[in-house]
Write a structure and sequence with these properties.
Blueprint (H helix, E strand, L loop, with lengths): L1 E6 L3 H11 L7 E7 L4 E2 L4 H6 L8 E2 L7 E5 L2 E5 L4 E4 L6 E2 L2 E4 L3 E3 L7 H4 L1 E2 L3 H12 L6 E5 L3 H13 L4 E5 L11 H13 L2 E4 L4 E5 L2 E4 L2 E4 L2 E4 L3 E3 L1 H4 L18 E2 L2 E6 L12 H19 L14 E5 L5 E5 L2 E4 L1 H16 L1
Parallel strand pairs: 1-2, 1-9, 2-5, 9-21, 11-18, 12-13, 12-18, 13-14
Antiparallel strand pairs: 3-4, 6-7, 7-8, 10-19, 15-16, 16-17, 20-21, 22-23, 23-24
Helix pairs in contact: 1-8
The protein binds flavin-adenine dinucleotide.
């Protein structure tokens, strides 16, 4: 048998699996999907878990039931590229591979800031987002929440908590001169107004020096605080960073046009772990996953794969609570209820799939 192993059943990994299962897998190929969770996590919605505004069940999907797939629900500890084996932290049997798809996503980047990892909540894993939701939910009246980082996830976390708890004192620390640096100035202005109207304090030019159990120290001022949520940057998963393959300056693995690692073309990388000209996103991971499914289908049938088409992204959408939002669609900046409804539609489609 030839063993194809997909590491990570998130946005990228699941698309590889679904693309292959839609077609005939050769009889001598066994497909294994490895994930720490026994379901697909819809990470783009983790801000709702951190704010405690939706149920767990609403932001995850069951994995496809198919007799051709073996699931391993375990914590990957390392990939032994010499032995071609996956080693686990909580399972003694390693899993061997002949073909490997690495789709393990990303984790927080704490930029070596003292106390950041120990004393902040995270939205990068389901378990961590649940813990953040518990901490926020258990806050006494008028408790203080600081969100560090005013990119897409920081904005979504801050606005969702505000809409859910009008009593809390919420502060957003933004490294730049305006929130959402990567977006159109009209969107930046709209979001800044939203925070102003909804009584979220935004501090620009933030430079967090250290974090303590009860506070955040920024630009020489220490703010007493009950819950601090870290949304100030990501980096590829540790397991990916430790792979002996060439990385780009963002620590992502460099791949060829077939998403193969040049040092070992039987290893494919997609999503937040793969070097790309595009910014990381669920949409990018999904398209890459579909393309890798097509490439692997040819490879597994001993055919030469066609070069994948150039990736065209449809835009990015963000929420400001449940009834307001923003985004770039077809290169047009949009604000208000329309982008919010489209975002809900995208979630609906993801869940339906
Ligand atoms: C709050 C928030 C909001 C976001 N909003 C948007 C948005 O609106 N639009 C957008 O396009 N993108 C958004 N993103 C980014 C998007 O979620 C990611 O770019 C996308 O999930 C990347 O897909 P992926 O397949 O690379 O990884 P993921 O979808 O993260 O999948 C990785 C999988 O690997 C598993 N895994 C990881 N490590 C291990 C391990 N050691 N052992 C076993 N299993 C493991 C995880 O459980 C997970 O299932 C948002 C992110 C966050 C945090």
């Amino acid at each position: 048998m030839r063993n194809l192993v997909i590491l990570g059943g998130g946005y990228g990994g699941i698309k590889v699996a679904l693309g292959l299962l839609d077609k005939d897998l050769p009889e001598d190929v066994s497909l294994t999907i490895v994930d720490r969770n026994p379901y697909q996590s819809l990470k783009t919605e983790f801000y709702t878990i951190a704010a405690g505004t939706v149920a767990d069940r609403d932001v995850r999907n069951d994995f496809p039931k198919d007799a051709r797939v073996t699931y391993v629900y375990a914590e990957v500890e390392a990939v032994d590229t010499e032995k071609q084996q996956i080693v686990f932290a909580d399972r003694s049997d390693p899993v061997s591979y002949d073909y490997l798809v690495v789709a393990l996503g990303c984790e927080d980047n704490y930029h070596n800031i003292e106390g950041a990892k120990a004393y902040t909540e995270s939205v990068q894993t389901f378990a961590n987002a649940r813990k953040a939701g518990l901490e926020v939910g258990n806050l006494r009246a008028y408790g203080k929440v600081t969100i560090v980082g005013a990119g897409l996830s920081g904005i979504e976390v801050a606005s969702e908590i505000r809409e859910s708890r009008s009593d809390l004192n919420i502060r957003l620390l933004d490294r730049g001169a305006s929130v959402l640096r990567a977006f159109d100035p009209r969107i930046q202005g709209y979001v800044a107004d939203w925070f102003n109207k909804n009584d979220v304090e935004v501090l620009h030019h933030a430079n967090v020096e250290y974090v303590e159990k009860d506070g955040v120290c920024n630009n020489g001022v220490c703010y007493v605080n009950d819950v601090t949520i870290w949304t100030a940057g990501v980096r590829p998963n540790r397991i990916v960073r430790e792979l002996p393959y060439q990385k780009d300056p963002h620590e992502k693995i460099i791949v060829n046009e077939f998403f193969q690692v040049p040092e070992n073309p039987a290893v494919y990388v997609v999503g937040d772990c793969a070097s790309s000209i595009h910014s990381p996103s669920a949409q990018l991971a999904g398209i890459q996953g579909e393309q890798v499914a097509g490439i692997l289908y040819s490879v597994l049938h001993n055919k030469v794969p066609k070069a994948p088409k150039e990736i065209r992204l449809r835009g990015t959408l963000g929420s400001l609570g449940k009834n307001d939002g923003f985004g770039n669609m077809m290169k047009q900046p949009l604000t208000g209820i329309v982008p919010r409804l489209v975002k809900s539609g995208v979630l609906w489609l993801n869940k339906r799939h």
